Amino acid sequence: MSKLLSFVLWTGILSISLASTANATLESRLGGKAYYDTELNITWLADANAGKGTVFDYDNDGLMTGYFANEWVNSINIDGITGWRFPNLDRNGDRVFNVDVNSGVFDMQFNDTCFNGNTSGCSDNEMGYLYWVEGITPATSGPFMNIQPYLYISENIHSGSNVWEISFYDGSYGAQLVGNLFHAWAVHDGDVASLPIPEPQTYLMFLAGFGLLGFMLRLRTRFKFEN
Questions:
Q1: How far apart are CA 59 and CA 97, in angstroms?
Q2: Which helix (H) or strand (E) holds 130?
Q3: Which residues form a coiled coil (predicted)?
Q4: How far is CA 47 from the centre of its chain?
Q5: Cβ proximity of 147 and 183 under 8 Å
Q6: 135 contacts: CB under 8 Å, gap ≥ 6
Q7: Has residue 208 got a pLDDT over 60?
Q8: Which segment of 16-30, 94-108, 121-135 scores lowest on mean pLDDT?
Q9: pLDDT at 21 over 50
Q10: Which residues of 155-189 are buried (b: 16+ CB within 10 A; e: fewer)?
């Protein structure tokens, strides 16, 4: 094999390897319905506007009040996987959001740690990390779909009836009344691939067991009254 051919082959292998490494932080789960983030150790729902068209949706566009969004995220069952939540903007719970006020109003604050190029503190903010570090936006959505530009609700309370939110239009975030309208993106702690998924046979066994229990109770009640 000539040196030139060897060089070309090794260059191709290296390129493929680098491409795989670049995409290694988001791994497909549940048949592409979700993606595991190896850096944050959470699983993102693939559809960033999955609430659209549900009974919780305000106007068939995915916008929900914070109250209905909370009901929606608690109702999610993807292939038997439950326990989904909103993204966390303060993972370590220190109540430090590293914001730099740019316009003087809550809905135009930026994650200062990420915005100024220092991404080491971004991992404390799950949606901030996705935007500022992984480069996920409506225009560059990666493996995700239906990313909306504005107002994604988080699980963090700002104060009183206000919750923190983020916009994927420019990475800004701030506080809004929980009764306002938001888009919602569901995440799950850890890697959902490691969670046990109930098999259909298990459900049938439970149903059969409950049916048998009900039948025995009816027989017992009937026997009691007849005697």
A1: 32
A2: helix 126-132
A3: none
A4: 9
A5: no
A6: 142
A7: no
A8: 94-108
A9: no
A10: bbebeeebbbbbbbeebbbbbbebebbbbbbbbbe
Query: Residues 6 or more apart from 24 whose CB is under 8 A from it?
Result: 38
pLDDT of residue 123: 77
Average pLDDT for residues 192-207, to the nearest whole number? 64
- Dig out the tokens for 217 from the structure: 């109770």
Q: Of all helices (H) and strands (E), which one includes residue 189?
A: strand 187-189
How far, in Å, CA of 131 to CA of 38, rounded? 15
Give 175's contacts (C-beta < 8 A, 6+ positions apart).
Answer: 106, 107, 158, 159, 162, 163, 164, 165
Whole-number Cα distances in Å, 98 to 74, 110, 111 = 29, 8, 6
Is residue 62 left, alpha or beta, with left meaning phi > 0 and alpha meaning psi from -120 to 50? left
Nearest 5°: phi and psi at 90?
-150, 70
In the chain, what is the straight-line distance between the N-terminal and C-terminal CA atoms, in Å?
A: 94
What's this model's pTM, rounded to 2 decimal places?
0.72
